[in-house]
Specification:
By secondary structure, the chain is mainly alpha-helical. It has 2 domains: 1-47, no CATH class; 58-116. 56% of the residues lie in helices and 0% in strands. It has helices at residues 30-41, 45-56, 62-77, 82-116. Helix 3 packs antiparallel against helix 4 (82-116). The longest helix has 35 residues, at 82-116. The protein starts with 29 loop residues before the first helix and ends in an 18-residue tail after the last helix. The chain binds zinc ion. Zinc ion (ZN) is lined by residues 5, 7, 15, 17, 24-25, 27-28.
């Protein structure tokens, strides 16, 4: 046992994951796989988590987030170069920061307008930006 996962990936190479006692990594361990399938069947917990996450992510960032999430598995499987995964992650991170700044600017602008009109900058100020109005 060399500590490397025994699974063969879609790309035909050995999985680079760290093997557990079973000889497979977390992703490829048949026992864990079974448990995940059962869990998914019992009330579709994974599905609903996925849906919750995708509601939280603004719609124009969603495709990129999904690509990066898929890339995590691909890097783990050895079907994607870790370098590419790193590049994708930093691009998404940059896009996320740009989005954050845009949202904050929008909120600040709304607050400034309220102040300029003599309104209290409180109350439903949080409702000014609804995050996902694509
Ligand atoms: Zn593996």
């Amino acid at each position: 046992m060399d500590g490397q996962c025994q699974a063969i990936t879609k790309g035909g190479t050995r999985c680079r994951g760290q093997a557990r006692a079973s000889g497979f990594c977390f992703s490829h361990d048949p026992v864990l796989r079974e448990a995940r399938h059962t869990g998914a069947a019992m009330g579709g917990r994974n599905r609903s988590t996925e849906a919750r996450v995708s509601r939280l992510v603004p719609s124009h960032l969603r495709p990129s987030v999904e690509k990066v999430l898929a890339a995590i598995d691909e890097v783990h499987d050895g079907t994607l170069e870790p370098r590419q995964g790193t590049a994708m992650a930093s691009l998404l991170s940059a896009a996320g920061r740009a989005y954050e700044v845009a949202v904050l600017e929008q909120r600040l602008e709304a607050l400034e307008q309220r102040v300029a009109h003599g309104q209290q900058p409180s109350g439903d100020a949080e409702g000014v930006v609804q995050g996902d109005r694509a």
